[in-house]
Amino acid sequence: MGKERTKQAIITAYQTPTDQGFPFPVFAVFEVISLALSSNLIVILHSRNQKGHSFRAELALAVLYLNKAEARDKICRAIQYGSKFLSNGEPGTAQNVDKSTSLARKVFRLFKFINDLHGLISPTAPGTPLPLVLLGKSKNALLSTFLFLDQIVWLSRTGIYKNKERADLIGRISLFCWMGSSICTTLVEIGEIGRISGQLKKLEKDLKNSEKYHNEQYRAKLKKSNERSLALVKAALDTVVAVGLLQLAPKKVTSRVTGALGFTTSLISCYQLLPAPAKSKAA
Fold it and tell me: Contact, 104 vs 152, CB < 8 A?
């Protein structure tokens, strides 16, 4: 609109008869300049408005993300294991951050065992092979047990539960449960990736190579396979983290290795909790 008005002003300037001895109408020139400046100003303001809208949208997504208790827990987990990596098991500020963050995270997990308990008694998806069903239920049972026992550890750390020796034993048992659930998750993800791989090969036979990436079903299966692969990496690394926390191989899985792997899996968890991008509407 602004460009059309500027163009029309230029045409008018040439068509307007000259006065006061000027070869070109001065007032028409001023009109052209003012319209051009106003047109550029409108473009700049519109651009800034779009940037402001984009910033507000990103801020809204950040608020939505941080409203999740699970997201805040994983951010704290990244801080915890990052501090463990920096401290390398030696006393100091980093180790204090590690311990205090570990204690704070236990508050986020109060009554969280109910989630996996619900998953344990919920029916599985139809067509799931029996071995994967059993592994999935074992994972739910072990993770629910870990989260329940972890609450007793929290009671001991806060001074409510006085029997420290028993609390330490319960804490160790809970870590074994978490390691077992991570192993079960690893096996489940391997099985699911194998199933999806078979489905993808079947679709590839039905579709031509040039057309498979345009097929919605194929792309959905491929996306699910990538998500499962990331979950497999996370579960496998978490198993090693559990080995480090239990000190089952202290020479190989040191405190620094445990911290590095724990920090990595925390970042993966943070990524997995990101809101799904909005699908663009068809024109």
Answer: no
- How many Cα atoms are found within 13 Å in the side-chain-facing hemisphere of 180? 18
Closest C-alpha among 166, 113, 172 to residue 141: 113
Q: Which residue has the tokens 């994972």?
A: 139
Name the one residue in this structure whose structure tokens are 């987990």.
77
Q: What pLDDT was estimated at residue 69?
A: 84
User: By the 8 A CB rule, do 152 and 170 touch?
Assistant: yes
Cα–Cα distance, 84 to 244 (Å, whole number)? 11
The answer on pLDDT for 283 being more than 50 is no
**210-223 pLDDT tens trace:** 677 778 888 899 99
In sequence order, the 6+-apart residues with CB closer than 8 A to the CB of 271 are 230
Which residue from 84, 65, 64, 70 is spatially nearest to 264, judged by alpha carbons?
A: 84
Q: Which two tokens stand for residue 220?
A: 């959905």
Pairwise CA distance, residues 63 & 84, whole Å: 28
Question: What is the rounded CA–CA span in Å between residue 138 and residue 142?
Answer: 6
Contact 174, 192 (CB under 8 A): no
Q: Token pair for residue 51?
A: 């940037």
Around Cβ 261, how many Cβ atoms within 10 Å?
A: 22
Domain definitions of the chain by residue range: 2-60, 112-272
Q: How far is CA 126 from CA 8, 129, 203, in A?
A: 69, 9, 20
Answer for the pair 232, 186: CB distance below 8 angstroms, yes or no.
Answer: yes
Residue type, 196: I
Burial of 266 (0-12, 13-18, 19+ CB in 10 A): buried
Question: Could you identify the residue written with the tokens 């008694």?
Answer: 121
